[in-house]
Amino acid sequence: MSAVPKTAVQPLSVSQLTAQVRGTLEAKFLSVWVAGEVSNFTRAASGHWYFTLKDANAQIKTVAFRGINLRLRFDPRDGMEIIARGRLTVYDPRGEYQFIVEELQPKGVGAAELALRQLKEKLLAKGYFSPARKRALPRPPRRVGLVASATGAAIRDMIEVFAQRWPFTELIVRPSRVQGEGAAHDISLAVRQLNWLHRNNKLSFDAIILGRGGGSAEDLWAFNEEAVADAIFNSNVPVISAVGHEIDVTVADLVADHRAETPTAAVVALTPDRQELLAALRDLRTRMGDAVERRIRFAKQHLDQIASRPAFRLPLQRVENLGQRLDDTNERLARAARQRLVQVREKLAALSAQLETLSPLQVLARGYSLTHTNDGQLVRDAGALRPGDLLVTRVASGVIRSLVTDAQGTEHEHSTAHGEPAPRGAG
Which residues form the Exonuclease VII large subunit C-terminal domain (predicted)? Predict the structure, then answer.
């Protein structure tokens, strides 16, 4: 065992040593600017940020507490180059020295510009800027909600232009701050309140105009806040963003259903011009009157032409002419019928004479006769008859009925002529 030193030494505890180191660091590095790259960024449930600042040769643990974070317009990310102002301290439980951030800004680009870029990327990914979701503006509108500063020129200009162009639109003004701290919250709340009235059938809106006059980019910053973008995106009523600055395009402009360069331009986009409509109506009335007069003149000329025709000057002449033509036609038809009847009679007489010449009765008149069996069969061959058959013989002046006692055909006569005996039973 080693011997206890004779000189009494009072050692420091780890906590005491750590406290002395922390005191030295905090006194020496009470406020210092540090530039570096963000690494291992973590967002705690408490709202605090924990990350590491590093360069090519060293690194330091860094903490940004919630109160600081809420004032920042952008979110640090791994790989981002930043410049931070803060103080050095020691975290006693782990004996690590760390950098406590009190101010933070991106390196090489302004914090506001970076915050705007990040918000646009986020909203683009969520579909806030999609043209497919943008709605057409009703024209003309019956009721419009105006969100603007109660004391600004924008609200007066919009009301005046509405009165000039289309005074029939009912205007509901919801005053709101349009710049400075709390303006974004007030604008988004105004849009939500008007939508609540619309959804609950308290007041039905055709459109909502977010209006303000021109200003610097800082003045217009309320229209670049995510709260305003959310309110516009979730609106049941079409929204017109009328931020009076033609150069800067705000997030509200990108999310809204329609962007107008000025509040006055928003009213023009939403309403017809009453004077232009009245002038157009007067012109239409004049053209319609001219067209009616031309139509009347044409109809009168056409009527005069019709009235000058013979059918209207001598209305019975046409009937008389047609009656006379009908009589002529009847006479021609009767004459043609008589001629046709004579021709038919002459032809019938000729055919009768020809038929008479061919008639069997003429043959009978010359001494011939026709013999039929009792059932009407014409007798052409005597060999077909048998003794006892009844015959009917027609002569020119009557009918003779007879009974066959003997019938000999041509073949029998031929055989008998040559000395051959006649067949038995014939005759």
Answer: 128-351
Backbone angles phi, psi at 100, to 5 degrees: -100, 115
Tens of pLDDT along 85-112? 889 999 988 888 999 998 888 876 666 6
Alpha carbon distance 174, 194 (integer Å): 8
Pairing state of beta strands 81-91 and 49-54? unpaired
Q: What are phi and psi of 43, to 5 degrees?
A: -105, 110
In this structure, the number of other CB atoms found within 10 A of the CB of residue 64 comes to: 24
Q: Where are the beta strands (DSSP E) in 107-169?
A: 143-148
Assess contact for 235 and 252: CB atoms under 8 A.
no
Give me the residues paired with residue 373 across strands: 391
Measured CA distances, 388 to 264, 400, 407, 409, 426 (Å): 137, 16, 10, 16, 12
Q: What is the pLDDT of residues 75-84, one digit of tens each?
A: 888 888 888 8
Q: Which of 229, 247, 203 is nearest to 118 (CA)?
A: 229
The separation between CA 205 and the C-alpha centre of its own chain, rounded to angstroms, equals 25
* pLDDT tens column, 23-37: 888 888 888 888 888
pLDDT tops 60 at residue 306: yes
Q: Residue 108: its pLDDT value, please?
A: 65
Identify the CATH assignment for 135-272 out of 3.10.180.10, 1.25.40.10, 3.40.50.2300, 3.90.76.10: 3.40.50.2300
User: Do 243 and 220 form a contact (C-beta atoms < 8 A)?
Assistant: yes
pLDDT band of residue 411 (cuts 50, 70, 90) is low
Q: Are 224 and 116 in contact (CB under 8 A)?
A: yes
What's the pLDDT at 109?
A: 61
